[in-house]
Design goal:
The chain is an alpha+beta fold. It is about 15% helix and about 30% strand. It folds into 3 domains: about 15-180, Carboxypeptidase-like, regulatory domain (Immunoglobulin-like, Sandwich), CATH 2.60.40; about 185-245, no CATH class; about 270-645, Neuraminidase.
Length: about 650
């Protein structure tokens, strides 16, 4: 026994202690791994295991620390946190110590490589390299300040999981999700990701650190101190110095394939397809309290666009990393051809508006099926009957939202009215029709800070304001409102309107084929394509906001910093505008100015014709590839959700009116 005791003490003495100087104790987990750059292992790197902070601004807590050996390897015993939701990550600081940016002392090492472990105990070796660092920097961009990671659940945990869609920390290579269809060589995202890793490799080689940190910094803000923070800064403002950053990869091709020329912005956009045979014409997306994505589909899935399909009868639900939640997709409850209306109420119930989309040659009579909404529990069980809830004279419903009181507001595109379902109780549903020439083809609906509903009239070039009880208050025209589609509220009391310009809502006699004809030859921004801000009193600026990132605006969303995001039904681009909270915008910008590149927006060849745009609790921007670029009307539907990783300020979900930061 004495011999065994002495042996155990001897072994324990050869291992490094925890960061607080205490031995991790018998039975403590050990994390093994290797630190390497594109050119080989990094010896004498200081490796630290951190537990991410649980609130924005709180510091990450070091759990253990050691140094790599001559082969870049490390072994790190640590005390596992009691919280099963704790997010752990590894950093490796390498390179010669120097002075902090700006000349301040501090022993700063500019090379910091990172691997996100996520929640739970990670078994097996971990690799820290440039690829895992780019993955961590983008996924955790909204949770990283000063080189440390902190944030609230579930956004923090979900973001850590998303990082594993980009890089595999087990081998330090590109993750399967990014490397294979519908990503891989089908879009330019993999090439952009590899090029970013090449940019970092110049710094890990000791050659370009100064230029990298200077170019990655935001205007008016201190330059980042290390490579990890540099990547996070690039992710949050990807159009900043895009060409200059690309030049840092000149002559480096450690990671292939890579970009041949500079992008308009350094965005990372992933495409998600669920089980691969469910998404067809996704119309909108709503997030629940866990950050899972509920998606209504226009059409029954069909891979061949030449084969006619009928309306979808499923409700998709994806995890934050793009897979089906177990048991999803869900069926029943009267689902048929859901359009722009999907929302989650305060109880976690999900509502889908059955517009009745279907391909040409479908033998069903859509007019018998487009007069309802469907309701599901938080675990996907239908509560509405087989024909859906039909109270309140619902006709071709499009936009649908819940407010904080659980009232459901439905825009009846084919009925010149709004249906209000009080407290989510269909028996009390009431139809609200202002009458006259207002609210023709109502399409989008949002709820403001006062609980009032704003509804766009696509066919009447107006926005109608309803009291919290549903009484018409006023109708807003002017300010560039033209063929309005989506509408979103901010936390300051304003609402933002996406003006489609030439996009006519496919209801009340207008067919999807007519919409396709109207937009097929548009190759440059239409003159009417714009965004209008409507103040709480109904006034608007004299002119709408215009830039070439606004091609055919359709969906619109506001993030946790009150900046505005616009999806386009053409142009393969996403636009980001400075909102009314100027402190959230780059210095010098005014309300309505583009944050994304003014001439292009944030482009992606993974985008097709997009309707919805929404922000999740991790700050990822989700867009619905609703239609193919060349839509055959037998089955025009697109098949993907496109997710721009780490691009926006996170939003507390479910979204019940104006956005709030978690």
């Amino acid at each position: 026994m004495l011999t065994a005791l002495l042996a155990s003490l001897t072994v324990g003495a050869t291992h490094p202690g925890t960061a607080d100087g205490h031995s991790p104790g018998y039975g403590a987990p050990t994390q093994d791994g290797v630190v390497r750059s594109a050119r080989g292992p990094l010896a004498a790197a200081e490796v630290t295991l951190f537990q991410a902070g649980e609130d924005p601004g709180s510091g990450a807590r070091p759990l253990a620390r050691t140094r790599t050996d001559a082969h870049g390897r490390f072994s790190l015993p640590y005390r596992a946190p009691h919280d099963p939701g704790a997010v752990l990550y590894l950093t490796a600081d390498a390179g010669p110590e120097g002075r902090a940016r700006g000349g301040a002392p501090g022993g700063v090492r500019p090379v910091r490589l990172v691997a996100m472990l996520g929640t739970g105990r990670h078994t097996g070796d971990v690799v820290l390299d440039e690829l895992t660092t780019v993955a961590a920097g983008f996924a955790m961009a909204q949770f990283t300040r000063g080189g440390e990671v902190a944030g609230r659940s579930p956004g923090l945990q979900n973001a850590a999981a998303v990082s594993h869609n980009l890089a595999d920390i087990g081998d330090g290579e590109v993750a399967e999700t990014l490397a294979t269809a519908p990503n891989g060589d089908e879009t330019s995202t993999l090439r952009a990701f590899n090029t970013l890793a090449d940019i970092l490799s110049g710094c890990t080689a000791g050659q370009t650190c100064g230029a990298l940190l200077d170019l990655a910094g935001h205007p008016g803000a201190p330059a980042p101190r290390d490579t990890f923070q540099a990547v996070a800064d690039i992710a949050r403002l990807p159009g900043n110095n895009a060409a200059g950053l690309f030049a840092l990869a000149d002559g480096r091709d450690d990671y292939r394939p890579r970009l041949a020329e500079a992008p308009d912005a350094w965005t990372i956009a992933l495409r998600y397809v669920g089980n691969g045979h469910e998404l067809d014409g996704p119309g909108n997306v709503a997030f629940d309290a866990e950050g899972t994505a509920w998606i209504g589909n226009n059409y029954t899935f069909g891979a061949d666009p030449r084969q006619s399909v009928c309306g979808s009868r499923i409700l998709s639900r994806l995890t934050p990393t793009g897979q089906d939640v177990p048991g999803a997709p869900y069926r029943g409850g009267g689902l048929y051809g859901v359009g722009f209306g999907t929302t989650v109420d305060p109880r976690g119930h999900v509502w889908a508006a059955n517009f009745g989309f279907q391909g040409t040659d479908c033998p069903l009579d859509a007019s018998r099926l487009y007069r309802s909404v469907s309701e599901f529990t938080a675990d996907g069980r239908p509560l509405s009957p087989p024909g859906g809830w039909r109270n309140g004279d619902i006709v071709q419903p499009q936009g649908a939202v819940s407010d904080r009181e659980g009232n459901i507001w439905v825009a009846n595109c084919g009925g010149r009215s709004v249906t209000r379902i009080p407290g989510g109780n269909p028996s009390g549903a009431r139809n609200i029709a202002p009458g006259g020439d207002t609210l023709v083809k109502p399409f989008g609906v949002t709820v403001d800070t006062q609980g009032r509903a704003w509804v766009t009239g696509n066919g009447s070039d107006d926005v109608t304001l309803l009291s919290p009880q549903g009484d018409p208050v006023r109708t807003v025209t002017g300010g560039g409102i033209k063929r309005p589609m989506g509408v979103a509220s901010d936390s300051l009391g304003n609402v933002w309107v996406a003006n489609g310009g030439v996009v006519v809502a496919p209801c009340e006699g207008t067919t999807p084929a007519m919409v396709a004809e109207a937009v097929k030859d548009i190759v440059t921004r239409d003159a009417g394509a714009s965004v209008t801000m409507v103040r709480s009193d109904g006034t608007t600026p004299a002119e709408p906001f215009v830039n070439d990132g606004l091609f055919l605006p359709w969906g619109i969303a506001v993030d946790g910093d009150d900046t505005v995001w616009v999806a386009n039904f053409g142009g393969h681009r996403l636009a980001n505008l400075c909102g009314a909270r100027l402190s959230s915008c780059p210095p010098g910008l005014r309300t309505g100015d583009p944050i994304s590149p003014a001439g292009t927006g944030y482009t992606s060849d993974g985008l097709e014709r997009n309707t919805a745009v929404q922000i999740d609790p991790s700050g990822n921007v989700w867009l619905a590839n609703n239609w193919r670029t060349v839509p055959l009307q037998t089955n025009p539907g697109g098949h993907e959700m496109v997710v721009f990783v780490g691009l926006a300020a996170p939003v507390c979900t479910p979204l019940l009116g104006p956005p709030k930061r978690p």
